[in-house]
Task: structure prediction
Amino acid sequence: MRMPRLGHHERMPAAPLPEDLGLRFRVADALAAGVPPARLRAGDLEAPFHGVRSIPAATAPGGISVDRNGEARGELEAEHLRRAWEYAMVAAEHSCFSHVTAAVAYGLPIPPHLLSGRGIDVAVSAPHRLPRGRGVRGHQVKARQVRIIVDEHTGLRLTDPASTWATLGSVLTDPYDLVAAGDAVVRQWRVDRPLATLDDLQAMICTGRRVGVPALRAALPRIRTRSASRPETHSRLTLVDAGLPEPILNFDVFSSGIKVGCVDLAYPQWRIAIEYEGEHHLLDPVQWARDIRRYERLAAAGWHVVRVTKAELFGQPRAFVNRVRSAIAARS
Result:
């Protein structure tokens, strides 16, 4: 959510700001450092929240561009997180970030349409007043239903991962997306440690009445610890709900004792691999060449690869299911 710049002074070179103010700062701190009020209204600054100024993203590189698993953040996620850092400059001590904002901070998959133009989620517990203001979505939460931490990766006060997943029950209307967020929370594959455990998620469901709890209860038994992405979760659930066996996630394929590769989803009994082709696979020549060599090795080892794109998985899932079903029938 891009905020308008201040003033009409773009034609005049703006005086430099004290370096120790950083990329985002409180107006009070700038005034205390001797910055004139007129400078804080200059066109090279944004006013994302009352009492805060920041250097526009286009001219302010930096921040965390990858999530805690080393995967690149999308533009919408990076912008949302930037707004959270800006609001944190003036946030009340008793508040924290929750719902979608906390999910973004943890790197949980959120559908793009929920991020576009969305204000940041700020929560308080009674008797504190609900946060209000432009660009803020205020929430009042029950103290027993959330746990608040200072996240070591972003430095923000957040609802902890299990609490955050529980709050998404009222936000993620697609059941598959709620499972995908849960998969990311408990993921054990290629991470130092999971953000939370299945028991942690179960405990959050049992803390009392909350909006979205039926959806949480339905999602919990479908959550797995080896899913690495939202498309993998959607692929798995699409196949299972079509009556096909549940595939194994991120399966290592070996031939004659040598590792051929790791496939997104697999039916080892039929030597069928299912690979999601993200846009980066198609746009990155190095990745594309690597994929081709891997598919050749899989074919040489007797494996059949079913490749699925974003357009098919999310737009024509029946076609995807039929291709997998045909592959299974041919190899049964």
Q: What stands out?
A: The radius of gyration is 23 Å. The chain has two domains: 75-222, 230-331.
